[in-house]
Amino acid sequence: MYASTQKGELTMSEVITMKRNNSDENTTLAMLANDFIRKMSIHKICRVQKAGGKAILICFEEYYYRVESAVSLSVMLTQEENSQDAFIIGFGGGHGLLNISWGANESIAKKAYNALAELGFEKDDSVTGMYL
Q1: Using the 8-state DSSP alphabet, how is residue 7 labeled?
Q2: Which residues of 65-79 are buried (b: 16+ CB within 10 A; e: fewer)?
């Protein structure tokens, strides 16, 4: 996936959107975030930011030997009345003159996708217009 930056440069990132029906009203967004963090088993958690119980932003960083660099992952969990949404963005980790990531962005995004799928999230392709 290629996303445009403000300067018109191209940067490689992997964007995945997911949705979970909130049939169990006892499962809060904070509980989901804690379960997700445990499933990810990434030791470097950069930031967890809560916004009034309606959204949680979780940022990870993991070193990938194939690109000799850290790859970043941002996951935004949001709460609506009947559903919870996850926005996954794997980015960074480019190496060399052409800033090639050798699939590291996709790997870290898929790791988050698999962890959220275990928690009942499903891929949501209804969100469009976020990237080129």
Answers
A1: T
A2: eebebebbbbbbbbb
Total Cβ atoms within 10 A of residue 5: 8
Indicate the pLDDT class of residue 88, thresholds 50, 70 and 90.
very high
Quote the CA–CA distance of 66 and 60 in Å, as a whole number. Answer: 18
Model-wide pTM > 0.85: no
34-62 b/e with 16+ CB inside 10 Å = b? Answer: eebbebbebeeeeeeeeeeeeebbbbbbb
Span 63-77, pLDDT tens digits: 878 777 788 889 999
Q: Would you mind telling me the total number of residues written for the chain in this entry? A: 132
pLDDT for 118: 92
